[in-house]
Amino acid sequence: MNGWTLAAAVTLGGGLGAALWGVATGPLRRRVVGQNLSTALACPALLLLAQGYDRPSYVDLALVLALLGPVGTLVFARLLADEPAGEGEDPPRARGLTYAAAGVGAAVVIALCVATGPSRATAKLVVVGALLIGGNVVASRALSGGFREVRRG
């Protein structure tokens, strides 16, 4: 086990427990937030595993996950926009988790860009990082009711 695989294990172990708890319990809106968090943590773990095992194909998996994970969350947000909120139920607020996941993603992408050096692989890492961070911030904001178009339907 090298440092990259250890960092991937810490990323998965540290965040996926909270994400699984969010997905397994609570109202439907909190479950969707947990799904978004699990995507935001699995993608950096795949990037770290790609470096640790020297498998560039894992970066392609991370790219697909960074693209489709937030899109799936936005589809759920769209479907939940028509659902009436329960009594006293506020939209889920996950600002802290969103920024923590974005910080983990940014730290992983920066570390991997430094380790990879200037190349086409670095450009792919930057694209994955931008999709991951931007997509998850937009999806989290949509879930918390931040976009009027999503709330109105």
Describe the 3D structure.
The chain has one domain (3-81, 91-152). Helices cover 81% and strands 0% of the residues. It has six helices and no strands. The chain has helices at 3-24, 28-53, 57-81, 95-116, 120-143, 148-152. The chain starts with a helix and ends with a helix.
Order of helices and strands: HHHHHH
Which regions are unreliable across 5 or more consecutive residues at pLDDT < 50?
Answer: none
Query: Oligomeric state of the chains?
Result: single chain
Biggest sheet, in brief? none
What separation lies between the terminal Cα atoms?
A: 49 Å
Number of strands: 0
Strand content: under 5%
Tell me the count of domains. Answer: 1
Question: What Rg do the Cα atoms give?
Answer: 16 Å
Helix/sheet category: mainly alpha
Helical residues, percent: over 70%
Overall mean confidence score, pLDDT: 81
Descriptive key words:
single chain; 153 residues; mainly alpha; 81% helix
Please give the structural blueprint.
Layout: H1 3-24, H2 28-53, H3 57-81, H4 95-116, H5 120-143, H6 148-152
Helix pairs in contact: 1-2, 2-3, 2-4, 2-5, 3-5, 4-5
Entry summary:
This protein is mainly α and 153 residues long. The chain has six helices and no strands.
